[in-house]
Design brief:
By secondary structure, the chain is an alpha/beta fold. 40% of the residues lie in helices and 20% in strands.
């Protein structure tokens, strides 16, 4: 896949573990986190793992398509909130 949409909270393997596994496997997929978590420490952890996008679920209806398109174009995307 070109883009992997992950959530911080996922069953069996959380989004951070999944991102680490993608990096370990040298996947070229760009990572976008779609999550309810707006805490700065979680945002920073996602960025440290190489995420290209961080979209909050409360604004996802309006931002998910634009966010994925931006990442697909090689840009970074972060929810305004």
């Amino acid at each position: 896949p070109q883009i992997a949409v992950l959530d911080v909270d996922m069953p069996e393997m959380d989004g951070f573990a999944a991102a680490r596994e993608l990096r370990r496997r040298r996947s070229s997929a760009k990572i976008v986190f779609l999550t309810i978590h707006s805490e700065e420490d979680l945002f920073n952890a996602a960025m440290d793992l190489g995420a290209h996008g961080y979209i909050l679920k409360d604004s996802a209806v309006f931002e998910i398509v634009n966010g994925i398109k931006a990442v697909a174009e090689g840009k970074f995307f972060v929810s305004a909130s």
